[in-house]
Amino acid sequence: MQYATSTSRIEAEEQPQVEAIGEHLLLEKRGHVAILTMNRPEKLNAMARNFWPDMREAFTRMESDPDIRAVVITGAGEKAFCAGGDIASFRELRTLLDKRSFQLDAMKTFYMVENSPLPVIAAVNGYALGGGCELTLACDIVLASDRAKFGMPEAALGLVPGYGVLRAPDIIGRQMTKMIVMAKLQIEASRALEIGLVQQVVPHDELMKTALDLAEEIARSSPIALEVGKKVINRGVESAEFDYAVEALTVLQASEDTDEGTRAFLERRAPVFRSRF
Fold it and tell me: Is 134 known to be catalytic?
């Protein structure tokens, strides 16, 4: 699939402007397109605790910039878009209040991406696991490298992907969501395309060019038309679902099984789960 514009024209317009947002995000402008890069390749771009407010800050800046009309989100390095949450940081959440604050932070961030007035494209260059896969669910369009892999394996930690179990059923269906979540499946880009998680798969080396071409083509449209269209398409999104999810996930994250799951992960052993509600 080819788009009308060429990245060479984007690059010719002006030199890219890059700024750091927090520790692990880079924001780059190319004409009317913003590229937001998760920049922690040594950890497969895992989401540290500061990821959530930093991502919201990045979207606040992009949405307040009248020159930006489309966003591409990707990951630094060759291996991962984002491998999910930084498991070690879960162990730092000591109290129930800490756990609820973390869940609110994550949900607010996914909700902001999903409801941004800007069209958001995920350019998935490698592993998109856990929160990384959930982030793709919050984006409007998902393009994937032929090397990409998707999964939501939180059950191995005694958790569930809170945003994922809310949004994936609308995108890939209830049963497929259950299978991926319950069996901790990792699926290839071609399978992700078949089930509707991904809209286009391209050769790895062509991913960013394809994403930027698409973003520039979208940016040529009326910004207000794009915003209204997105709102109408997303009209079924209800914030009440997030309120329920935050409370349920807070209780789950405070359970003995989550403690065992995260401890086992860090100790590189198989977890022994016992809890039932």
Answer: yes
